[in-house]
Amino acid sequence: MKDTFYHYIVDLQNRITAELEAVDTQAKFREDIWQRPEGGGGKTRVIENGKVFEKGGVNISAVHGKLPEAMQKMFNVSEADFFACGLSLVIHPKNPMVPTVHANWRYFEMYDADRKIIQQWFGGGQDLTPYYLFEEDAIHFHQTCKTACDKHNAEFYPKYKKQCDEYFWNTHRHEARGVGGLFFDYCRATEQMSMQDWFNFVTEVGDSFLQAYVPIVERRKELPYTQAQRTWQEIRRGRYVEFNLVHDKGTLFGLKTNGRIESILMSLPPHVQWIYDYHPERGSEEEKLIRVLEKPKNWIN
Amino acid sequence: MKDTFYHYIVDLQNRITAELEAVDTQAKFREDIWQRPEGGGGKTRVIENGKVFEKGGVNISAVHGKLPEAMQKMFNVSEADFFACGLSLVIHPKNPMVPTVHANWRYFEMYDADRKIIQQWFGGGQDLTPYYLFEEDAIHFHQTCKTACDKHNAEFYPKYKKQCDEYFWNTHRHEARGVGGLFFDYCRATEQMSMQDWFNFVTEVGDSFLQAYVPIVERRKELPYTQAQRTWQEIRRGRYVEFNLVHDKGTLFGLKTNGRIESILMSLPPHVQWIYDYHPERGSEEEKLIRVLEKPKNWIN
After folding, report:
1. Which of A296, A55, A59, A282 has the alpha carbon at shortest distance from A163?
2. Is the pLDDT of residue A70 over 80?
3. Complex prediction ipTM
4. Contact between B265 and B259 (Cβ < 8 Å)
5. pTM (2 decimals)?
6. Which residue in B64, B92, B102, B152 is the catalytic one?
7. Does the pLDDT of residue A257 top 80, yes or no?
8. B129 near B177, Cβ under 8 Å?
């Protein structure tokens, strides 16, 4: 399973970066290959200062070795070996009419002293963070998520949509990071779902990513915008930074276990602003976005 | 003691904001008075888009009530009433040749059921974060700190200077936030130091702040700078954000105990950049700063 999934994310990284370069028409991803001293490594691909994408990363990694102490506690096991691989991406477009997107698909294995697998699961998801709300974009993104889910289990979309709203909740701001999507974790074999079934589901979602995001980029990337709208985007990016640095478990885990900092923090937006106690005007497009973030809605009935 | 110290910080806030307005010559602080639903409140003063100061806050607060659960754990007590007051400031100048400064002075009391004080202490400090290193500025700042400390105890400066270097260590970047200053906490009455002695020491440091910072601002604020130097400042401000959101105990405590968010996050800089894997040129002024941050040095022999 681990080799199969690893080959899948290698191929998916290639497909996603090729397609995003085609959309951008100008910038190319640069690639950094890195090794983890304790075992494994990764391939980080970053695009900057593109025509469409101001900054973005599409990274894969496959790491293994002794389970770090922080994770032993988390999973309630003593010493064990582990393997983990995944693809993580965050794309920050230049035009404030184009939403930021984040996605991640990952697989995890833990072994006993005889190298027998004692635990294994999949996790992941994809979610959208607009600066200006086009309802049809949120609906398209969620519909694509739902179509991928429904091929596997009709309960998945509502369940993972809700988990996404809960996970990407910026507690100290009392608002969601964005308009959500899917979030799932600890997808383990059950009577209903074998690991192969989970693999089929997770890769279905991974395969849906470009279809979920690229049409939105295409229809918004040429829209005109003002300097004030750009300022609003940079203020909202501040909330993205706050979520990632204060609440995001993956980011904090990476920072506290000596992960490759630049690969982890590629998720942070390029230009960001913090203005004291900023509130958009009543009835404005900016306020409309906030109202939706304060109370996550169902985009599909 | 609590009334005496509260009156001290009220007066100090007035002195500091008046002096900084005089230095800026253009922008004024705006004041927000807020109430804490559980008891007490604060007076937040923020300056933005000044000639010299791009963003800054000089805030006081005095809060009381039942000790929040998170603090019960921290101080290893069960239910108790508390009182806490303090002044917190962060100033982000526009010109990258002028360093950012942070300072904080605070007093804390805890009571038993009969309103008898069971614990009380002072804490605080002040520290400097340059974007371009002028050694004489770091020396002046530290010398002013040392002069204030030495009036009370010759061991204070080396001890609190070291604690400052340790506290403002950006672990995941393997570098200090800035060139340090003083950091002290849990200053309780001992045989050598009564609470009155601590009050005298803490207010001595508070009184030294303007002398420590303003001369540096005055001699750098008119220096010319390039767009590239401004970019470097914004990148380094990103490290400031990372420290405050990932490591700073005060910030995280405020965020997790429903503090007044805008007063807490006034510490975040106005314009910030994150560029993937940015490294300054070998031998440049930018690299010189990093070398010093990687290995905090003694500014005074």
Report:
1. A296
2. no
3. 0.94
4. no
5. 0.95
6. B102
7. no
8. yes
Contact between chains at A246 and B245 (C-beta distance less than 8 A): yes
Residues 6+ apart with CB under 8 A from B113: none
pLDDT digits (tens, 9 = 90+) for B16-60: 999 999 999 999 999 999 999 889 999 999 999 999 999 999 999
CA angle centred on A276, ends B177 and B62, rounded to 5°: 80
Provide the residue ranges of all domains of chain B, joining segments of one domain with +.
2-294
> What distance in Å separates residue B150's CA from the closest CA in chain A?
37
CATH topology of domain A2-294: oxygen-dependent coproporphyrinogen oxidase (3.40.1500)
Residue A247 is a catalytic residue? no
> From the centroid of its chain, how far is CA B32?
20
Question: Which residues lie across from A256 on neighbouring strands?
Answer: none
- B255 close contact with A: CB closer than 8 A: yes
Percentage of residues in chain B having pLDDT higher than 90? 88
Is residue B298 classed as helix, strand or coil in its secondary structure?
coil
**Residues B41, B43, B44, B47: what is their CA dihedral angle, to the nearest 10 degrees?**
170
In a mutagenesis test of the A interface, which of B46, B169, B276, B277 is the best target, namely the one with the most A β-carbons within 10 Å? B276
* Beta-carbon contacts of residue B18 (< 8 Å; ≥ 6 apart): none
Rounded to whole angstroms, the Cα distance separating A204 from A294 reads 30
b/e for B13-48, b at 16 or more Cβ within 10 A? beebbeebbebbeebebeebeeebeeebebbbbbbb
Q: Is the dihedral of CA B248, B228, A277, B11 positive or negative?
A: positive
What are the tokens at A262?
Answer: 């630049």
Q: What does the angle CA B175 – CA B177 – CA B182 come to, to the nearest 5 degrees? A: 115
pLDDT tens-digit series, residues A170-194? 999 999 999 999 999 999 999 999 9
